Write the structure tokens for this entry.
Amino acid sequence: MSSPLGKMELQRVRAVISGRVQGVGFRYYLQRRGLELGLAGWVRNRGDGSVEFVAEGPRPAIEKLLAAARMGPPSAYVTDMRVEWSPPEGNLPQPFSIESTSWS
């Protein structure tokens, strides 16, 4: 029988956040939260003005990162967040980092 305190199931999430999310410290805010939560992954600006992140770790920690993304730093304004869950692939940077802008 499995214990609830046993190994937590790892998850992967990709999220794209829209609104006033660039030029307001959003990437640094999410990086700090990702580091605090011990997640693997990255965050980056996108050429369309949104911010994207991919993270892997225990689902409760990812849920906390998603909650932080919905709120954003004080000068941000989130209007939309698209979230896609998938099985972990184990290929994300650890610790959680900031990546270069994606122009595609």
Observations:
- The longest strand covers residues 10-20.
- The CA atoms of residues 28 and 98 lie 8 Å apart.
